[in-house]
Amino acid sequence: MNDAVATANGPDASRDGESGDPRTRSGGTVSNCDSRDEFVRLLTSAQPRLFSYLAMVLGDVHDANNVLQEANVTLWTKADEFTPGTNFLAWAREVAYFKALAFVRDRKRDKLIVDQDLIERVAAGRQHGEIDQRRASLRHCLSHLQ
To answer: Is pLDDT of 7 > 60?
Structure first.
């Protein structure tokens, strides 16, 4: 960084890597309170759009809500990586996209792979036994009522 830019933005400009945006500066240093407040405002205003985007990508509003919460945590922890003055929604959507990919990958991995024929045989065996037992129990109860 050249000396003219460092002097124009204050002595700390070359160290913190922030832009000269007056909304994020106070006396040449980054105002953490102001930048955090702005970040919270941006994050809050982006929630409906991020939710809609995730619902479209995932096809389920419940999954979209869960992934949005995970994305919000990541966005908050990476808040210092956001450059004020750039497109917040594009940055947040990229984070949400990668969270959605991870969600889909994990959901596929968590599914059990079982032979369909085995499931049908087990279900058929249980149903006949359960039905006979239920019928016997029902007959027993009805005999006490009469």
So the answer is: no
Q: What is the DSSP letter of 86?
A: S
Give the list of residues 6+ apart from residue 78 with CB closer than 8 angstroms, or none: 95
- Residue 5 CA from chain centroid, whole number: 39
Provide φ and ψ at 31, rounded to 5°. -90, 105
3-state SS of 4-64 is HHHHHHCCCHHHHCCCCCHHHEECCEECHHHHHHHHHHHHHHHHHHHHHHHHHHHCCHHHH
The Cα–Cα gap between 97 and 66 comes to 13
The string of pLDDT tens digits covering residues 62-93 is 999 999 999 999 999 999 999 988 999 999 99
